[in-house]
């Protein structure tokens, strides 16, 4: 009973953070800032949902699959964000006008 | 024991354990299938798991890894609340930019974990790594400092010393 309530709480926290991530995706100005919202909030949100599923199901094969899902999200989502950000920068997509510094572009010119 | 043999045995045990966790074992056939698959994984990728012998013992490194995990979890919760605050704020208080930090870690696996952690923690996102000079380019949603040393202090050092204990 307590386990199911806790699981539900985690699932709701996850959904809330997923929602905030999507909101950030719409509101923030350029691709790099949007990636920030997409990697942080959505990773945490999805991990929260999966952890809730694990709590509800306990140590069964189903629960372990949820735990393994968390691990793979933690490993793959930062790598995807890195690949998108790097590709965007190499493809010449500029940072938003409010940006204060871009050391990456500076170093690329030197090479 | 040779390093490669040790690595293969570890991979075999881990792969078998993951299989047993993932399947509801109702039948002996499932155990056999799991062992066969673990053997295949061991043959294909077994030698990459442990590559060097360490001076420090395994228990010490496991304790460091657990400490790192909780440290990272706390930083990640802070990161999420921070980004949620920015997204919900009506004025969008951002000051973005790409900064550069240096790392002292030498092993590829350690650097990978470090960059992944940086991406998942407050307002920072790893854009690229220069493997020769060990510099990491990071996009910050709020830039606090402009010099390399200050940024290294603020962004990299929280994780670096624990990771050094785990991996090196």
Written account of the structure:
- The complex is a heterodimer of chains A (111) and B (168).
- Chain A is built from four helices and one strand, in the order H-H-H-E-H.
- Chain A has 111 residues and is mainly α.
- Chain A has one domain (2-110).
- The radius of gyration of chain A is 18 Å and the shape is elongated.
- Chain A starts with a helix and ends with a helix.
- Chain B contains five helices and three strands; from the N terminus they run H-H-H-E-H-E-E-H.
- In chain B, helix 1 (3-22) packs antiparallel against helix 2 (28-45).
- Chain B is globular and about 60 Å long.
- Chain B starts with a helix and ends with a helix.
- The mean pLDDT of chain B is 79.
- Chain A binds chain B through residues 17, 20, 23-24, 27-30, 32-33, 35-37, 39-41, 43-44, 60-61, 64-65, 68, 74-75, 77-79, 81-82, 85-86, 89, 95-96, 98-105, 107, and chain B through 18, 21-24, 76-77, 79-80, 83-84, 86-88, 92, 94-100, 115-116, 119-120, 123, 125-128, 130, 137, 139, 141, 143, 146.
Short description:
In chain A, 82% of the residues lie in helices and 2% in strands. With 111 residues, chain A is mainly α. Chain A is elongated, with a radius of gyration of 18 Å.
Report the end-to-end length of chain A measured between terminal Cα atoms. 61 Å
The largest sheet of chain B is:
3 strands, antiparallel
Report the total helices of chain B. Answer: 5
Instruction: Based on Cα principal axes, name the global outline of chain B.
Output: globular
Taking pLDDT < 50 over at least 5 consecutive residues as the criterion, the unreliable ranges of chain A are: none
Distance between the termini of chain B: 20 Å
Shape of chain A: elongated
Number of strands of chain A: 1
Proportion of beta-strand residues of chain B: 5-15%
Query: DSSP strand (E) fraction of chain A?
Result: under 5%
Helix and strand sequence of chain A: HHHEH
Report the radius of gyration of chain A as a whole number of Å: 18 Å
Could you spell the SSE succession of chain B in H and E letters? HHHEHEEH
The chain-level mean pLDDT of chain A equals 83
Category by helix and strand content of chain A: mainly alpha
* Count of the separate structural domains of chain B: 2
